[in-house]
């Protein structure tokens, strides 16, 4: 599916005349022909190889299956970045049960990097070869690197929660979309805090980060696979410290 999505997306990347539609009447939430073509390509693969499984995709909704398994698809996570020409978007693929994701893929077609995580594997492949995924051992917030996608994060209350953590860390960076979660799993950063996510935004990152030794919950410490407010951390110590600040705020 990741290979099929790559082939469907790359001809449109950094094309100035790409067809784009805004999903919102207020604000800007774009979808492109590349998003739709990639999800169709992945659904075609599933129809051939896993016809009994369910599908939940951002662009074409939900198809119920009979196997108890569902493929959760975000064909381009970070479409705003995609139409801006930045290589921080990615293809998200997760295999999930009713309890959440059990396998995930974060694929960056333009760079050629792929991050895969499950109970049996935690590996990244790319131009430099392959490497095992393992989160960083950073224990203190004042040594941590924090990522989020949007500076405003969410509501005013959610922004105050994020700021409570951001004021304590060594470095805060913005605008990375799903690539931030991949970098956390690869041991490059320590925390990702976001709000307003959909389920298809987070299923694959949860599986990849868990496989690499990290933790992903909501802002109350509960399951995050339904979306909403998400805290991803490299280890239990950082997770506990960030979670306490989010709760207090």
Detailed description of the structure:
The protein has seven helices and 15 strands. It is α+β, with helices and mostly antiparallel strands and 249 residues long. It folds into two domains: 2-132, Fructose-1,6-Bisphosphatase, subunit A, domain 1 (Fructose-1,6-Bisphosphatase, Chain A, domain 1, 2-Layer Sandwich), CATH 3.30.540; 141-248, 3-Layer(aba) Sandwich (D-Maltodextrin-Binding Protein, domain 2), CATH 3.40.190. The strands form three sheets. It has an eight-stranded mixed beta sheet with strand order 4-3-5-6-7-8-9-10, with helices on both faces. It has a five-stranded mixed beta sheet with strand order 12-11-13-15-14, with helices on both faces. A hairpin with a 4-residue loop joins strand 7 (100-108) and strand 8 (113-118). The protein is globular, with a radius of gyration of 17 Å. The relative contact order is 0.14.
How do the helices and strands line up, and which of them pair or pack?
Blueprint: H1 2-9, E1 20-22, E2 30-32, H2 33-49, E3 54-57, E4 61-63, E5 70-77, H3 79-84, E6 90-97, E7 100-108, E8 113-118, E9 122-126, E10 129-132, E11 145-148, H4 156-166, E12 171-174, H5 179-185, E13 191-197, H6 199-211, E14 215-217, E15 228-233, H7 236-248
Parallel strand pairs: 3-5, 11-12, 11-13
Antiparallel strand pairs: 1-2, 3-4, 5-6, 6-7, 7-8, 8-9, 9-10, 13-15, 14-15
Helix pairs in contact: 1-2, 4-7, 5-6
GO molecular function: histidinol-phosphatase activity; metal ion binding
Cofactor: Mg(2+)
Pathway: Amino-acid biosynthesis; L-histidine biosynthesis; L-histidine from 5-phospho-alpha-D-ribose 1-diphosphate: step 8/9
């Amino acid at each position: 599916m990741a290979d099929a999505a790559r082939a469907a997306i790359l001809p449109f990347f950094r094309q100035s005349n790409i067809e784009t539609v805004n999903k919102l009447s207020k604000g800007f939430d774009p979808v492109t022909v590349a998003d739709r073509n990639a999800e169709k390509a992945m659904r075609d693969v599933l129809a051939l190889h896993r016809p009994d499984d369910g599908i939940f995709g951002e662009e074409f909704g939900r198809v119920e299956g009979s196997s108890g398994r569902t493929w959760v698809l975000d064909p381009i996570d970070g479409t705003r970045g995609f139409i801006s020409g930045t290589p921080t978007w990615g293809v998200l693929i997760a295999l999930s049960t009713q309890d959440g994701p059990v396998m995930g893929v974060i694929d960056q077609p333009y760079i050629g990097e792929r991050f895969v995580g499950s109970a049996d594997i935690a590996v990244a492949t790319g131009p430099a070869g392959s490497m095992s995924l393992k989160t960083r051992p950073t224990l203190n917030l004042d040594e941590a690197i924090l990522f989020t996608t949007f500076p405003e994060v969410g509501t005013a209350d959610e922004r105050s929660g994020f700021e409570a953590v951001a004021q304590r860390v060594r470095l805060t960076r913005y605008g990375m979309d799903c690539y931030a979660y991949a970098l956390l799993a690869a041991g490059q950063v320590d925390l990702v805090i976001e709000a307003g996510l959909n389920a298809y935004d987070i299923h694959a990152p949860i599986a990849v980060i868990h496989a690499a030794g990290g933790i992903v919950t909501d802002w109350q410490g509960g399951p995050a696979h339904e979306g909403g407010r998400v805290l991803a951390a490299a280890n239990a110590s950082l997770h506990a410290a960030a979670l306490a600040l989010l709760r207090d705020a």
